[in-house]
Amino acid sequence: MKSWPTISTIADDVKNQKTTAVSNVEEALRRIEQLNPEYQAIIAVIKDRSIKRARGIDETVALGGAVGRLAGVPFIAKDNFLVFGAETTAASNMLIGFNAPYQSTAIELLEAEGAICVAKANLDAFAHGGSTENSDFFITKNPHDSTRVPGGSSGGSAAAVALHLSPFALGSDTGGSIRQPASFCGVVGYKPTYGLVSRSGVIAMASSTDTIGPLAASVDDAALVIDVMSGVDPLDSTTIERTTSSYVPGSSSTSLKGKKIGIVKEYFGEGLDDNVESVIRAAIESLKQSGAEVVEVSLPSLSLALAAYYIVVPAEISSNLSRYDGQRYQHSATDTESLAESYEKSRSEGFGAEAKRRIMIGTHVLSSGYYDAYYKKAQLVRAKIIRELDAAFSDVDFMVGPVAPTTAFKIGENTEDPVAMYLQDIMTVGISLAGVPAISVPCAVPVGSMPIGLQLFAQRGQDAQLLSIAKAFENHRAAS
Amino acid sequence: MALLTREQIQKLAALSRLRLSEDEVEKYQKELSDILDYVKLLESVDVEGLTPAYQVTGLQNVMRMDNIIDYQAKPSDMLAGAPKNQNGYIQVGRMI
Asked: What total of structural domains would you count in chain A?
């Protein structure tokens, strides 16, 4: 399938009437119809509403009216975003039939600039997982090899962009759920600084690390989407001020001269696949050739991040999923005698195995007698990780490493052992606990290799600088 | 040796408002024990002098005006996802 032009080119072409919003939307819908039976990236299409919105934009253009920076650009949202025009299910049986009463702030901001949501993408149910195999509906296939997973939990979004179904897609990243599928599918995935993009109207997983961001074909496209979505939202009291008027890298700002980049030593230990290691080392070499000073940094506490994450996150999940009680949202068990029985039966029927696992772990680590040993200790270890990262960022501008220890694994390979599946997140979760921004940018890979992403990350609030250096890396890769 | 007993799993399920089959109790006893076994590596970590990092933004007591705003959804829309509702309230089963 042919690539889309860049997002700004599409919007310009709509404004200049070289193309129409309607034809863009129809093209995206046609691609979904053609490719989705094989790859199953999409849960639902939004046909009527998207065509109607596209017509409105084309009419405004025809009348000489002003349209936004994303005019007539189709996109796909992970199905944990509340969007009008289709059900919002979080890929869970619990929410089948749920029609969002309002839209998420991110969607509203994109729509205000003229973007059009054409479909909802598959995910691990409630975003619990790293392969999209935990979807209650179906498993999305990796576009580069349909016997392999696309990664997760934003696997449908990453596969959709890799298949060129739409120019960009939205995902959510709590512990790596944008970056890892981006790496597995060979697209750009951006996780902003915690708080930069409002989560209002996105189904909550773990509120202290949940972030949302774009999956796109290029750093410029991802940056433009971030630019539109960022900033304080009264509906999400954890949102932070923008640090710049524009997150889009300028064409002259992509030199790496004078930039100091730390290679995280601990990322290159045992368990890292040889092919991944050699590709990442070559990528780092290209950063050097672009003028960056590269030094090794050590973050010993990162090895504790996964354990801390799998205490903190289930704790928050057990709280956030308590709202699905059979009374307020969709699934409700039949033939129950009492409210208590309805709670138990509805939740047992509606939640899949991974949600149940995480709810019970969370309940355990928060329960009296275990709270200090698990939950509080994990938050102390989190403080240690943050302190270590802050210290390292006083010396280097950016840090770099792989996104995941392997390339996309085979469907079914890790489903029997939850701990083995959790180990997939080992290189992304520390960054999530610290709330720092991170990006996965595709590397040049040997012929026949599955895609591999380079993970670059920066201090909190340094999103513009991170996007700029990611663009420089992308440019250098394209030139070499 | 499993870190959690069958009774503990049953108690956790009850606290979580989940009902488990016998097979599930067995499955989760093993899986949850494996996870708790993995996270044990935090036990020996020195955290002297640190305070828990419950959040990363540093924001505290974020306030806004308590005004009615013109919003996308009406109260009746907000109730539409509830399986049973009546006169603007969610209807539930017998409580005692």
From this structure: 1
**Can you give the pTM of this predicted structure?**
0.97
More confident residue, A57 or B86: A57
Return all residues near A378 (Cβ < 8 A) that are at least 6 apart.
A307, A308, A311, A312, A365, B39, B42
Residue A61 included in any domain: yes
Point out the residue among A322, A360, A419 whose CB comes nearest to the CB of B28. A360
Kindly determine whether residue A433 and residue B57, on different chains, have CB atoms separated by under 8 Å: no
CB contact under 8 A, B72 and A419: no
Whether A351 is in a domain gets the answer: no
> B59 and A240 in contact by Cβ < 8 A?
yes
Say which CATH number the domain at A169 has: 3.90.1300.10
Low-confidence spans in chain B with pLDDT less than 70: 1-2
Q: Which of B12, B35, B92 sits opposite A363 (nearest CB)?
A: B12
- From the candidates A15, A50, A78, A318, which is the catalytic residue? A78
> Looking at the partner chain, which of A240, A330, A379 has a beta carbon nearest the beta carbon of B53?
A379
pLDDT for B58: 92
Instruction: Test B47 with A381 for CB contact under 8 angstroms.
Output: yes
Q: Is the pLDDT of residue A39 over 70?
A: yes
Rounded to 10°, the helix A219-229/A463-479 angle is: 160
Query: Among the options A135, A154, A172, A177, which is catalytic?
Result: A177
Q: What pLDDT, on a 0 to 100 scale, did the predictor assign at position A251?
A: 72
| Mean pLDDT, chain A, whole residue set | 96
Q: Does B44 touch chain A (CB under 8 A)?
A: no
In a domain, A205, yes or no: yes
Ordered by where they begin, the domains of chain B are 6-41 (1.10.20)
Q: Which residues of A187-214 are buried (b: 16+ CB within 10 A; e: fewer)?
A: bbbbbbbbbbbbbbbbbbbbbbbbbbbb
**Three-class SS of residue A372?**
helix
Domain that holds residue A132: 7-229
Examine the predicted complex and report whether its ipTM is higher than 0.90: yes
